Amino acid sequence: MPTMTRAGYVPPKQEPKKDVGQAPPKTQKPKKKKGKKRRKLNAAGIASLVIFAIAVLIGAGTIYLYTQTQAYTHAFLPGTMLMGYPLGGAPYEGGEALVKQIEQEKVSGWQMEIRCMNQTHTITAKDISLAIDVQATLEPLWQAGRDSGMAARYMKMLQLFKEPMNVQPVLTYDLAAVDALLELIRMDVECDPVDASVRFTPGSATPFSFTDEEMGYALDLTGIREGIEQDVRNLASGSLTLQAKELEPDVFRAALENEISLRTRLTVALDADAQSQHNAGIAAAMFNGVTVAPGETLSFNGIVGRRTAEGGYVSAPEPAYGENVSGVGGGVCQISTALYRAALLGGYEIVERSAAARPVRYCEMGQEATVSDQGLDLVIRNQTDAPLFIMARTYGEEDAAFAELTLFGAPLETWYELESLTEETGLIEEPVYIRDRDGAYATYSDERVPVGKAQMGYVAEVNRIAVDENGAEIGREIISEDIYEAIPPTIYVGIQDREE
Asked: Whole domain around residue 98: which residue ranges?
């Protein structure tokens, strides 16, 4: 029967069963300890162990490489970046998405402001078709570590860990719009300087009116296009200012105004006959408003031209070979003489001038300038640095007529006066007989008609005297020395015999 104790349930003891017909157990004898036998490994065994170890290592290495690189089989390796944006672990589509993001953030908003001469021009990404070449940009990053197996990829990963691969996007653009804009700016800015000028209006209350000078500009565009292209490649928006170089004109208004002043004004009386006054008036009008540039010459005959009836000239007395004869254009020498004297008083250089055969009544001896459209001319040079302006006119007052010449040019440092010094050389009293073949004075051979009186001979020296502001002489120069030959009395004799 089972019994219960405090400790719990205790099962009843059972008597061991006896095996019927079973031999009693044998008493085991203690075993003798056998000694261990050492076996030596041969070369084949060692080789097997080495191969096994290597296989284990290779397997473990392969598993390690696989675990390290498997995630990047279809993704960019760690350490690859585009403009600082990491691409590691991203699939190719992720790279494309990043390119679009960069295009939106940096490419589409690119612009360059170009300032020049208070004008601003803007070039935008659209103007130059600025875009990112997706394949050319991503291909180097995507191919990193893909040129061989896992080991090479893993080594590339280690390299990128130390030195990340950060590339800039490959851009496409067309700078034709930049070239066109720079050329437009150049054409708009560049210009030659314009000299100040003077307009000469003789006879008006203000004969001179001036225009202002204008600065010229040159634009050096060397390196500008290259600089803009560099900013495009760096996706660097910004601005630049083009500095135009100023080109100064040769003539400024202030200097021009200071260069023009009255050099001389000369008024002379004209001959009394109306024909001479008429011809003198035509010649004077030709010179009214004439301008002679610095260094240039003025020819009287070049301005007046031939004196013809078609030109409005009439016959008037003019000296010829010591006598006054009638000729078309007579009286013009009064204007050439007035111009000659005015040029001397104005300090200008006389290049060519001819004296008359005999002294004339409208100026002091030696101060005349005889001209002829057959060759004799008066030539004046403007040796100054400023233009020479001439005003000329004839006018009448009561019963007299006058010619007035006014010369404007560079300011005179000194004023001038003219002085004629004359000396008589003698009188020829023996007459000269001239056969009057035309019968102008005498018809018959026994006629003796005095035509010309004996005229004294002279030597005339003309001096140009420089005076200061008070009229005191400060220098003189001999301008001319002319000889007027003495002329004997002239008697005309006819050539026709009288009938008995």
From this structure: 72-109+132-172
